[in-house]
Amino acid sequence: MRLLLVVNSFASSVTARNTVVVHRALAQGHEVEVVETNRRGHATRIAQDAARRGVDLVVGFGGDGTLNEVATGIAGTDTALGVLPGGSTNVFARTLGMPNDPVEAVKGLVRGLDAGNLKPIGLGRVNSRYFCFHTGIGFDAAVVKQVERHASLKRWAGHPLFIYAAVSTWATHYDRHSPHFSLRFPDGTSVPDGYFTIVLNTNPYTYLGNRPLDLSHDASLDRGLVAITFRTMKVGAILSSLAGALRGGGVEPSDYLDERVDLTSFEMTASKPFPYQVDGDYLGESTHLAFQHCPDAVRLCMPC
C-alpha cells in the first residue's frame, strides 16, 4: 500500500527518534512518504493532495489538531485514515484504545493495516470543518483560546497550562452572568439560554491525566452527535453535573443541563459572536454554527 505519514514535529510527544522508528515500522511491506507540517491548515492541504494522488492511507502523527486536519482533508474520498498519538492528550487515539506512546501505538496500527482492518466511521461537521471527537462552544473554547496564547509552553507544561487557563478564563475572560447563544433542533425544540455546549462525536470528551472524562456513553462513531448544553455557570451546578462524568458514568441530569443524543443536525445562533473550538483547535468566534453528522465520512484503520 501507498502510505503518507504526516508529522507535526512541534507536537509535544513527537521527536526525531520516534519519527524514525514509526517510519521504519510502517515501511515494513509498504511504500511510505513522510511530510512535515509547518503551519495551521497545512496538514489538510497535504491530505487533500494525497487523496487526489490516490494514496491509500494517510497517517496523522501529532496532536489531535493534526489528526483533525488530516481527517478533514480526506473525508469523502477513498483514502483511509491512520492515527498515531503525538500530542499531550491524544483524545482520539486513546479513544480507539491505543497506547499514548507512539512507538508502542504504531505496532497496533501496523497490525491493523496488515489485516486490512479498515472501518467506515462517522464524523461531525460544523459549518465546513469536520471533527473527529468533539466541538466546544463557549467556555471551553475560551479556555483553548487562552492556552493557544501560550502555545510555546504547551509542549512542556501540558495539563498544568490547561488548568491555569481554565481558572484564568473563569475569573476574568468569560461572561458568566448572561447566556451566550441559543440552539435549535430539527424537531422544533430549542434551548434559548446556552452558556457553553459540548458536541460529541465520541466519548470521552477528554482525559484528565489517565482518567477519562466521560460525558455521554451515547456518543459513538457508529451513532449521531450528542449535544450537552450547560444553562448556567454556577459552580455548584456544573460540578454536580460533572460528578458522574468524573466517575465514568456520564453527566448527571439537572435542570441546568440539556442533553440531546443521536442528532443528525442542529444550529446555534446568537446576536453577538461566541467562541468555538474543534478537536482542541481554537477557530475564532461566530454568530452561527450549523452542525451535521456525516455517516461513513472516512475509513479508519483500526488498531489491532
Give a written overview of the molecule:
With 304 residues, the protein is of the alpha+beta class. It contains 9 helices and 16 strands. α1 links the parallel β1 and β2. α2 packs parallel to α3. The longest helix is centred in the middle third of the chain and has 15 residues. The two termini are 18 Å apart.
Kindly list the characteristics that best describe this protein.
single chain; 304 residues; alpha+beta; Rossmann fold; 16 strands; 32% helix; 36% strand
Proportion of strand residues? 35-45%
How would you spell out the order of helices and strands?
Answer: EHEHEHEHHEEEHHHEEEEEEHEEE
Average predicted confidence as pLDDT: 92
CATH architecture of the largest domain: Sandwich
What does the radius of gyration come to?
A: 19 Å
Number of domains: 2
Structural class: alpha+beta
Quaternary arrangement of the chains shown?
single chain
End-to-end separation in angstroms reads 18 Å
CATH level 1 name of the largest domain: Mainly Beta
Give the total of beta strands: 16
Architecture blueprint of SSEs:
Elements: E1 2-7, H1 16-26, E2 31-36, H2 42-52, E3 57-62, H3 64-74, E4 80-85, H4 91-95, H5 102-114, E5 118-126, E6 129-131, E7 134-137, H6 139-149, H7 151-157, H8 159-173, E8 181-184, E9 190-194, E10 196-200, E11 206-208, E12 211-213, E13 225-230, H9 235-246, E14 257-263, E15 265-278, E16 281-301
Parallel strand pairs: 1-2, 1-3, 3-4
Antiparallel strand pairs: 5-6, 5-16, 7-10, 7-15, 8-9, 8-15, 10-13, 11-12, 13-14, 15-16
Helix pairs in contact: 1-5, 2-3, 6-8
